[in-house]
């Protein structure tokens, strides 16, 4: 809680106990102080919907308190009749008549002029992989598996470039429509999906992953995600149904080449 807000509000309510405050002033003070505490005294800030719910409950409680006693109701009624009927209160009425529409209009203007932001996404970027998977009946140990063509990068650069070129072909035949020409997740079909396709240019995606992880995600797609990844609405197909094992390893080489990133090093289990 923000004590610099909460303590003065509580002290103000305590102080009113020692003053002969009119019942309507007392109720108004309670309403204002509780609202200030809810709005500015909570850390982290409370959502507006929750504040609105609490304020509605507070208003109901204060009205119930006012109407539960005949003397309190009589005091409130007499004051309101004087306030709206006597000439000496006219300046206050005119001030309220001007300020209330002005405040309402200012609030509406500020709300309309706020920059529109996209809703926050609950997407889990990197769900936990299984220890092993099957690819068209073949078992693959994801902990020990590595890209069989990665070593060609140093041992046989010409052969390596051949595999990268093959991966490029796979990408532009199958992946570009969602992940985009620049691999930023903005392909022509991207905005038809929820969540959006992964942005491979983002260093928090493939730059943080091992190639075996990418193989699993590409091969199994959204339907192959584990239950602990729920909720998940990935629309990525299970590509093992459409391309070969070599095609997936090749396209992974192309992803890293195009984005200029390096796969995460394989960790040795002790």
Verbal overview:
This protein is mostly helical and 270 residues long. The protein folds into 2 domains: 3-93, no CATH class; 132-259, Cytochrome Bc1 Complex, Chain D, domain 2 (Orthogonal Bundle). 53% of the residues lie in helices and 3% in strands. It has a two-stranded antiparallel ribbon with strand order 1-2. 17% of the residues are buried.
List the helices and strands and how they pair.
Elements: H1 3-16, H2 23-40, H3 48-67, H4 70-85, H5 90-112, E1 132-135, E2 138-141, H6 152-155, H7 157-179, H8 211-220, H9 245-259
Antiparallel strand pairs: 1-2
Helix pairs in contact: 1-2, 2-3, 7-9, 8-9
**Helix segment count?**
9
Mean pLDDT: 85
Q: Indicate the overall shape.
A: elongated
Under the CATH scheme, the architecture of the largest domain is Orthogonal Bundle
Structural domains: how many: 2
- Unreliable runs: none
Counting helices, strands and paired strands, the structural category is mainly alpha
Order of helices and strands: HHHHHEEHHHH
Helical content class? 40-55%
By CATH reckoning, the class of the largest domain would read Mainly Alpha
Strand order, main sheet: write it out: 1-2
Give the tally of β-strands.
2
Q: Taking Cα atoms only, what radius of gyration do you get, to the nearest Å?
A: 32 Å
CATH topology of the largest domain: Cytochrome Bc1 Complex, Chain D, domain 2
- Binned strand content: under 5%
Distance N terminus to C terminus?
46 Å
Largest sheet: 2 strands, antiparallel
């Amino acid at each position: 809680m923000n004590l610099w807000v909460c303590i003065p509000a509580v002290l103000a309510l305590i102080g009113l106990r020692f003053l002969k405050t009119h019942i309507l002033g007392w109720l108004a003070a309670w309403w204002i102080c509780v609202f200030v505490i809810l709005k500015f005294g909570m850390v982290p800030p409370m959502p507006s919907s929750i504040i609105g719910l609490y304020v509605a409950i507070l208003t109901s409680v204060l009205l119930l308190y006012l109407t539960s006693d005949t003397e309190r109701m009589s005091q409130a009624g007499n004051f309101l009749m004087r306030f709206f009927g006597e000439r000496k209160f006219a300046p206050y009425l005119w001030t309220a008549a001007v300020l209330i529409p002005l405040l309402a209009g200012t609030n509406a203007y500020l709300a309309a002029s706020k920059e529109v932001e996209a809703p926050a996404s609950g997407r889990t970027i990197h769900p936990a992989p299984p220890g092993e998977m099957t690819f068209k009946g073949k078992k693959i140990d994801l902990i020990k598996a590595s890209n069989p063509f990665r070593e060609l990068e140093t041992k046989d650069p010409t052969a390596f470039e051949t595999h990268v070129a093959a991966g490029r072909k796979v990408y532009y035949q199958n992946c570009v429509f969602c992940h985009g020409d620049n691999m930023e997740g903005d392909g022509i079909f991207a905005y038809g999906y929820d969540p959006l396709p992964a942005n491979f240019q983002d260093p928090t995606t493939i730059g943080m992953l091992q190639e075996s992880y990418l193989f699993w995600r590409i091969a199994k797609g959204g339907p192959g995600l584990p239950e602990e990844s729920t909720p998940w609405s990935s629309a990525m197909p299970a590509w093992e149904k459409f391309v070969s094992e070599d095609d997936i390893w090749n396209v992974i080489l192309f992803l890293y080449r195009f984005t200029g990133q390096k796969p995460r090093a394989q960790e040795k289990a002790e």
